[in-house]
TrEMBL record:
One of its GO terms (molecular function) is ubiquitin protein ligase activity. Keywords: Membrane, Metal-binding, Transmembrane, Transmembrane helix, Zinc, Zinc-finger. InterPro entries: HRD1_E3_ubiq-ligases, TRC8_N_dom, Znf_RING, Znf_RING-CH, Znf_RING/FYVE/PHD. GO terms for cellular component: Derlin-1 retrotranslocation complex. It is a multi-pass membrane protein. This is E3 ubiquitin-protein ligase RNF139. The chain crosses the membrane at residues 17-47, 59-77, 129-149, 155-177, 198-224, 230-249. It comes from Elysia marginata. It is found in: Membrane. One of its GO terms (biological process) is ERAD pathway. The lineage of its organism: Eukaryota, Metazoa, Spiralia, Lophotrochozoa, Mollusca. Residues 283-321 form the RING-type domain. Its main location: membrane.
Amino acid sequence: MSQDDIFNTLTMLVKEVLFAMCGTILCIMGLASMVSIISGLGLRFVFGIMGAHDDEEGIQPAVSGFLFVLLAMQTGITSITGSNRLMLLFQNCVLLFVANQHVVQTVAANLVLRASTEEVAVANHVRPMLPYLVFFTFPFTVVASLWHYPFRMSWLLAISAFSLELMIKSTTTLSIYMINMFHTHTNYLQENVEDILFYFKAVCGCLEFACGIFLLLNGAYIFFFESGGIIRLVMMIIHFYCNIYQTALKGWSTYKLRQSAWEKVNKLQPASQEQLDENDDICPICYQEMTEAVVVKCSHVFHKACLQKWLSIQEKCPLCHMDLTEDNLSPQSNNNIAQPIR
Ligand SMILES: [Zn+2]
Ligand SMILES: [Zn+2]
C-alpha cells in the first residue's frame, strides 16, 4: 500500500467512526466526554501560557462537553444522514471553538486589566495578551475562508457575528488597558479618565449588544424557517434572558446611577475650611490631600470627583453609610445651588 492509500484509508476510518458516534444521543454523550477532555486540556494549556491560576475568575471546568451535547441536540445531528452529518459536526465544533475563545477572553481580560492597574512584571502584561493574536486573526482567516464553502447562510452569519462579538470584547479590553496605562504613566488624562472609560465602555457595550440582538434574530430565522425544536427554543430564551435582557437592564441602571450621581454632586455645597480641618485635609475615598471638597448631609466631606465615582456605584456615605439616595444631599435643606468646585 502506498502512503496515499494508508492516508485515505485512515481518513475513511475516522469519518466512519465519527459518523457512527453521532448516531444516537448516547453516542453523542460519549463523544462529548472526549470533546470535554480535549478542550479542557486545550484551555488548561492556554491558561498556563497566560499565567492564569486555577482560582482565576471566569475559569470554569470544561463546559464544552455540555455545550457539545446541546448543539448536537439543537441541530438534530442524529437524524441527519450522509456526509451532511459530518458537515454539521464540523460546524458545531467551530462554534464550540469560538465559544472557548470567549471563555479565554474573559480570563485574559481580567489578567490584562489587572496588569494595567497594579505593579506587575512585564511578563504579566505580555502573557495574557498572547491569545489576542488568535482572537484578531481567526475571524479574518478561518471565518472568512468558511464563506467560500457551501455552508448554510444562517450558520455563516452566526459564526461571523459570534466572532465579531469576540473582536469587540477584545478591542474593548485592549483599549481600556491602554487608557489605564496612559493614565498611570502620564499626566494627560488625570481628570477625564473616568469619563473616557465610561463612554468607551458604553459604546463597546452597545456594539456587543447589537451582536447579541443579531444572533437572536438569526436564531429566530433558523427556528422558523430551517430547523425548529424545543432545544433551540430553550437556547434562544436563555440567550435572550442572559445576553440581552440582563445586559440591557445592567447597562441602563449603570447609566441612570451615574447620571443621578453627577446631578446630585453638582448641587452640593463646598466644604468650609473648618470642615476640611476636621478631616485633616485628607479625602476618605482616595486618601489624597483635599484643598477643595464638597460636603454631604451627614457633614462628611470628599473630593467632588471621588464622591461622583462612589455614588455611581452605591448611594451610601462611604464613612457612615447614611442613605444618599435623595435628590438634595446638602446639610442645609435650602435650594441654594452651590458653586461647582473646580
Ligand atoms: Zn478623593
Ligand atoms: Zn457620612
